[in-house]
Recover the amino acids of this structure.
């Protein structure tokens, strides 16, 4: 009852309006953050899989005005990255705790198979040359 007497309808409207403006600013900042992260990764030839706001990610305790995001992307070498990104309007992006995994695309599997075949051929050649070297050593004695 006492609380109702201290707030006039105008004060309540200003409070609600202030909260709405604050929420709107945060939403716009989030959109700009995601765009900034996306532009940096795409400029390096990567492709974004997901960008998710995580306010309590590792490193949140020391951050002041930065916002934290969990970002998953694939670079041009088909390597999949998952990282925590700190970002702020004037500070840029800071990528931390990056974890990488290789995708098993058909090109990579084909490349790995041809490398294994080439490796076996080279190993056979090394064995043959060792036998010849041993034979030459025996012949000299």
């Amino acid at each position: 009852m006492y609380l109702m007497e201290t707030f006039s309808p105008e004060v309540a409207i200003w409070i609600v309006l202030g909260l709405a403006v604050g929420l709107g600013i945060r939403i716009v900042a989030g959109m700009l953050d995601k765009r900034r992260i996306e532009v940096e990764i795409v400029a390096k030839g990567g492709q974004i899989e997901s960008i998710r706001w995580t306010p309590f990610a590792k490193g949140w305790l020391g951050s002041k005005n930065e916002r934290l995001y969990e970002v998953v992307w694939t670079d041009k070498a088909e390597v999949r990255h998952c990282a925590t990104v700190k970002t702020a309007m004037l500070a840029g992006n800071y990528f931390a705790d990056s974890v990488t995994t290789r995708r098993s695309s058909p090109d990579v599997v084909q490349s790995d198979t041809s490398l294994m075949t080439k490796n076996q051929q080279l190993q056979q050649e090394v064995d043959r040359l060792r036998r010849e070297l041993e034979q030459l050593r025996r012949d000299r004695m």
Remarks:
- The chain is about 55% helix and 25% strand.
- The first strand starts at residue 47 and ends at 53.
- The first helix runs from residue 2 to 6.
- Strands lie at 47-53, 67-74, 79-88, 92-102.
